[in-house]
């Protein structure tokens, strides 16, 4: 009898340890997702700053492009992932518009500041792409864990939900199409 | 001076000295039962002859070959070329990556530095071994034998990263619990399963790993890996990319036993240097990403 009680206590202890460690792992994965999401925020902020500088530079050369300068892209705190994706798509549009408009202004295109800003924006986009892939990688691992038994039992008990992916914008998809 | 004739003359001299050495070895063994100590003396003299004459002649022949054949071909492909057959990438440079086990025996030769498509690089043949002796028995484990190359990298990065082919056995990285958080490497699993099945990636910073290893980079590295024989190790350190190709070969070495045909040698040397060219071109290191 004491042996059975000891075995039962041991089993319960093992289950508790397993439950806590699985829950900890899931929480660590959530933190990693949040860290990766903050990487997206940083890249979006940088992109918005560089675009604002580009617009400022353009203003000196383009006197009659009020349509371009009236566009506002605002990043707010606490934006959802889909809002961030929409803002990113808006930035793609704005950038495309700047590039198309700049075609008509050779002086602008050859200006040192504009060339430097174009390089900066390309680098920022690379960083944004990296953040998106890192985020999606973490989300993928987390979502897989949520649906795998027995971790799914712990996830359900803790009320953990699947996370959404950060979708690539049209421009990033186009880039990939061109490369292949 | 006709290089072909001069090479052949030097090769035959080397071959002759080698033949003398082998003949005397055989004689000393065959006559040992009859001559005893004299035979032993002959063997010892023959060894001294090998160390001080045969090796010297072979080294002179190799030096002549490298100065007159290899260097002229390298000049056709690389700008700002510096070629030193006796020099090599230093042990400290490799140790500085902190990503390769160094054993207790290190040697390097055939140092080349230059630019290809405006990308600065240096490379040399490297041999890293661990030699252990118990008094009765000596065991030599070869950690690395092949080409070590260092390239300028076209993206700026702060944190170190390592990409190692799974068959590359003697790489190292800090991921122990005793390493500080900033120093610790984390294993990174990318979205490309095929890439993950061939290479293992350790990085100090996940974001930078994704920044450097783009889907195109992964695809191009897989192509490069298929195009060259040997195991690969890539170390991203101090804005430089170290590429180690463990192919158990010594590049740019002439054979003493085969006649040197310049046309054939050219093919062979081109094959040896093609690793540098393929790497820059396949990985698009010359691509100014932000132009």
Q: Overview of this structure, please?
A:
The complex is a heterodimer of chains A (180) and B (291). Chain A is mainly α and 180 residues long. Chain A has seven helices and no strands. In chain A, helix 1 (2-59) runs parallel beside helix 3 (81-102). The longest helix of chain A has 58 residues, at 2-59. Chain A starts with a helix and ends with a helix. Residues 175-180 of chain A have low confidence and may be disordered. Chain B folds into two domains: 1-77; 81-282, no CATH class. With 291 residues, chain B is of the alpha+beta class. Classes of the chains: A mainly alpha (180), B alpha+beta (291).
What's the arrangement of secondary structure elements?
The complex is a heterodimer of chains A (180) and B (291).
Chain A: H1 2-59, H2 66-69, H3 81-102, H4 106-110, H5 112-147, H6 151-157, H7 170-179
Chain B: H1 3-30, H2 32-35, H3 37-77, E1 79-84, H4 91-95, E2 105-116, E3 119-133, E4 138-152, E5 161-165, E6 186-188, H5 193-198, E7 199-203, H6 206-212, H7 215-227, E8 231-237, E9 240-246, H8 262-282
Antiparallel strand pairs in B: 1-2, 2-3, 3-4, 4-9, 5-7, 5-8, 6-7, 8-9
Helix pairs in contact in B: 1-3, 3-8
Number of domains of chain A: 1
Could you name the CATH homologous superfamily of chain A?
LemA-like domain
The count of β-strands of chain B is: 9
Radius of gyration of chain A: 24 Å
Indicate the structural class of chain A.
mainly alpha
Backbone structural class of chain B: alpha+beta
Low-confidence stretches of chain B: none
Q: Could you say what the CATH architecture of chain A is?
A: Up-down Bundle
Taken together, the total number of domains of chain B comes to 2
What sort of overall outline of chain A do the alpha carbons produce when their principal axes are compared? rod-shaped
Helix content of chain A: over 70%
Beta content of chain A comes to under 5%
Major sheet details of chain B: 9 strands, antiparallel
Sheet with most strands: strand arrangement of chain B: 1-2-3-4-9-8-5-7-6
CATH class of chain A: Mainly Alpha
| N- and C-termini, Cα separation of chain B | 48 Å
Bulk shape of chain B: globular
Please report the distance between the alpha carbons of the first and last residues of chain A.
70 Å
Helix count of chain B?
A: 8
């Amino acid at each position: 009898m004491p042996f059975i009680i000891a075995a039962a206590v041991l089993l319960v202890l093992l289950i508790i340890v397993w439950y806590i460690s699985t829950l900890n792992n899931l929480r660590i994965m959530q933190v990693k997702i949040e860290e990766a999401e903050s990487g997206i925020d940083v890249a979006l902020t940088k992109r918005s700053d560089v675009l604002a500088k580009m617009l400022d530079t353009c203003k000196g050369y383009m006197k009659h492009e009020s349509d371009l300068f009236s566009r506002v892209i605002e990043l707010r705190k606490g934006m959802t992932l889909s809002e961030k994706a929409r803002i990113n798509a808006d930035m793609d549009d704005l950038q495309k518009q700047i590039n198309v408009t700049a075609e008509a202004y050779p002086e602008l295109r050859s200006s040192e500041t504009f060339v430097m800003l174009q390089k900066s924006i390309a680098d920022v986009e690379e960083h944004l792409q990296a953040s998106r892939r890192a985020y999606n990688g973490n989300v993928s691992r987390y979502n897989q864990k949520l649906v795998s038994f027995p971790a799914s039992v712990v996830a359900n008990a803790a009320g953990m939900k699947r996370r959404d992916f950060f979708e690539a914008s049209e421009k990033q998809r186009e880039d990939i199409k061109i490369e292949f | 001076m006709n290089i072909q004739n001069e090479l052949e003359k030097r090769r035959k001299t080397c071959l002759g000295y080698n033949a003398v050495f082998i003949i005397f070895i055989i004689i000393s063994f065959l006559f040992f039962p009859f001559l005893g100590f004299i035979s032993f003396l002959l063997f010892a003299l023959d060894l001294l002859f090998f160390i001080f004459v045969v090796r010297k002649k072979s080294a002179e022949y190799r030096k002549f070959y490298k100065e007159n054949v290899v260097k002229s071909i390298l000049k056709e492909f690389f700008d700002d070329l510096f070629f030193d057959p006796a020099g090599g990438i230093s042990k400290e440079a490799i140790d500085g990556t902190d990503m390769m086990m160094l054993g207790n025996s290190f040697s390097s030769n055939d140092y080349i530095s230059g630019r290809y498509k405006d990308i600065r690089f240096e490379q040399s043949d490297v041999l890293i071994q661990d030699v252990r002796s118990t008094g009765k028995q000596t065991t030599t484990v070869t950690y690395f034998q092949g080409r070590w190359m260092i390239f300028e990298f076209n993206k700026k990065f702060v944190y170190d990263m390592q990409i190692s082919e799974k068959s590359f056995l003697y790489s190292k990285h800090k991921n122990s619990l005793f390493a500080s958080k900033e120093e610790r490497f984390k294993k990174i699993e990318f979205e490309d399963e095929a890439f993950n099945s061939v290479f293992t990636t350790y990085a100090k910073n996940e974001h930078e790993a994704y920044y450097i290893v783009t889907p195109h980079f992964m695809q191009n590295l897989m192509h490069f890996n298929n195009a060259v024989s040997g195991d690969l190790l890539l170390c991203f350190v101090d804005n430089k990319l170290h590429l180690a190709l463990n192919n158990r070969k010594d590049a740019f070495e002439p054979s003493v036993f085969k006649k040197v045909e310049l046309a054939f040698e050219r093919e062979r040397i081109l094959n040896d240097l093609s690793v540098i060219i393929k790497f820059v071109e396949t990985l698009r290191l010359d691509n100014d990403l932000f132009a």
